[in-house]
Each structure stands twice: as C-alpha cells, then as structure tokens.
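Troubleshooting: if your tokenizer reports a length mismatch, compare your output against this known-good record of 331 residues.
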Amino acid sequence: MEIGFFKGQPTEYIIKYASGRITREGMGLAFFYLKHNTSVVAIPTSSTDASFVFNEVTSNFQAVTIQGQLTYRIASPGQAATLLNFTIDPVRRAFLSQDPELLPQRITNVIQMQTRSEIQQRSLEETLRDTQSIAGVALARVREAALLQPMGVELLNLYFLSAKPTPEVAKALEAQYRETLLRQADEAIYRRRLHRRRLDRLVSLDPQRRCRGDAGVFEGGGSRVGQGQAPVRLGGKLPLLQRPGALHQQDLLGPRRLRADRGARAAPRPVRDAAEWRDLQRWRRGRLPLVQQRRDCPDWPGRETVEPRRAPAAPPGSSLTTRRGPALSLR
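Known-good structure output:
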C-alpha cells in the first residue's frame, strides 16, 4: 500500500512535507499521505525537564561542580524546525536524526555562560552559600536577553541542586568546624572529670577535716568560725561553732559535754561521781575538746604522745559516788 495514515498528538506541532513543499501544518493534525513523497515533522511543544552538570572556577581559583535541572518548552515550533531536524517515521513515531537530543545541551551551554559570570565574582564559600541566588540571577539574565529565542525555546525554570568543591577542599572546609566540636567535647569531658575528682577528694578528706580541722578550731579559740557566725562560749572558755560541724563536735564530746553545757547555763548542782569531777576540771581549764579529739580521732598526729592532764584532787569534805562501788569519802 502506498497510502498511509498519520495522527498527531495534541501537544505536537505537525508539519507535512510533500515533494519538498509544506502542504499542511498545525497542532495535532491527522491526514492520509503517500509514502513515497511525504515527510512528517513532529515538534513536541510540551514542557521538558533536563539535568545538567558543569564545572566552574571561583574568584579564589577553586573548582566547584554545579549540578542542576532546567525546564523548557519549544515556544516557536516553526523556528525550531528550521534549526533542528524533527522528522519522524510515521509508523514507528521515532525521530530519524539525533538533533532533538542536542537541544537540551545547547540550552545548558547558555545557562553555563550566564552562571560563570556570577561565580567568578564570588569566593568558594560564597558560591556554596548562594547557590539558589545564583540560579535566580542566571534565569533572569537568560529571559531578559532572550538568548534562547533564536532557537524558538522558552526557559521556564532553573534550579541548582548542589554545588560541591573538590574532595580535598571539602575536607579542609569541614576541618575547622569538626575541630571546634571535638574541642568542645574534650572540654566537657575535662570539666566532668575535674568535678568528679573534686567530689572524690572531698569525700576522702571529710573524716580528716572533722578530726583535724575542728580540733584546730578549738585550739585556736574559734579562729575558723564562718563569716557572720559568732562562737558560743560555755563558761567564757569553750567555743562552739554554729555550723553543721557542730553536731559532729557534740558527737565527739559525748553526753558529758552536753551535761556540762547545760550545767554552765543552769544553776550549779553537786558532782555525781569522780569521773564527772575530772571532766568538770578539764572543761574549766579548756582542755576537754583537745583531749577528746586526740582520744577519738585515729589519725591524729602524735596521738600516742598526748596524755590528758591528771585531774586535781577533790576538795576536802566532798562526797563522791563511783560507778563501780559505793560512795567514796575524800576527807
């Protein structure tokens, strides 16, 4: 059969050539044709997406790779048909040449030239940061200058998806921020370990502070009293710190100290036994805290050499009752 039938798509601009002359043209045509002298040109007018990748050099001579995507459409099919061959096989509906594949590359070249002028004015850091603004500037320049109009093409959108430097430069750019993060992590670890070490030291030195530090306070006559706290003196000689350590001091002194404290504030009462008499005499001479501290603290320096003073003899006429036996007569 020498007669064929062709039906174009609604988005295709069809041009029918018969014996080298244009017989019909328009959008989505359908017609019969003679196979031996008819050529059919189908120009797609729908929007088309194309990806691109190109390399450029910044103002500080650093290579950068731009990857993006563009959207275009053929606005003037007749003009595009004079530049590129869009002839198709009416039966297979395939292009007979590779010219339609050259159109995206030609558009990419125009975009690259407009992008180069912008990148050469920026450093590498600015290029990596202002990728989208560069794409907007390149799109505006292409539209204003009508650079794609001779090809009958309209550029709809332009996007720069990524801008990457060379791998060596990328590592160098990441090094500063990476080192900052590592330094902050090291500082946090150091502060945590230092705080833990201080707490361990306080826990290990707490018994020694209770034994040695409080004894020094009693020997120095209240020289380590906290700011704004006045020592309480029993009988004008024994200081008592008004701080949490006072409970520990009372534990070291024992119930006899508490009885002595109450006895100094209340009315005098007769002495019960010989041990209480000796404690009373030591308290009067201001030696009870030091002797008690040295006796109860295991790591007191020179503990083995410290001996408490002997209690003076009871006054004549006193009657004492010991813990282990009947009342004693000191006459």
